Amino acid sequence: MAAFVTRPSDGVLGVIPARGGSKSIRQKNLASLGGKPLIEYTISHAFSAATLDEVIVSTDSEEIASVARKLGASIPFIRPAHLATDTTPTIDVVLHALHFMEQLHNRRFRAVALLQPTTPFRPQGLIDDAILRLTKSDLDSVVSVVDVGAHHPYRMYELDDASVLSPVMKEVNNPMLVRQLLPKIYIRSGDVYVTRRECLVQQHSLLGERSSGLVIPSDIAVNIDSERDLEFARHLLAMRSMGSGR
What we know:
Blueprint: E1 12-17, E2 32-33, E3 36-37, H1 38-48, E4 54-58, H2 62-70, H3 90-105, E5 111-114, H4 126-135, E6 141-147, E7 157-159, E8 165-167, E9 186-196, H5 197-203, E10 211-215, H6 227-243
């Protein structure tokens, strides 16, 4: 095995994970959205990012690989089956891609940008914004987030075996607070994770101990995991097309 050249870590590797075995939607990453395969949106976003040094698609599916290649994406390997199960942690997929590409190029990348194909409506410039925020700081990672909206934990309850309700946030004195008085709480949107190499390798984490959030507008924060999500994305895309006069 060749030794790495002795130079500082540089460049950001873009990784698009596209497993072929989705159960919620068959070949979800190739599902049609606006006449395009779903993965095409993320590949296009990656190509438009000026701060990505290299972009690859990690897939276990020859069919997805073929479509991605036709879209101009790089497929340097077919992902091993043991890294393409329902329970495979995303961090393991990212580390496999990182180590493979570092061995291939005999270099170290400074960070990895994880770009999930299931979030097709990233704001323009989001990837570059995330990478620049990371590189200008001592953060472990920068991730996209979205306001939880109506699904606020202050309004959530648990049910015991007797169907008795109790608030999840038990320290909150008044779970019936009006929306305007609720503190802002966010959840990861899935659009982008940019993580330093050290955090990925040493902390085995996409977030790490110090992370910053980039807020995604809630009206475009779509993470497709079910047929219902896909239908909503199609509806949203149609509405956006109507609004642009096309």
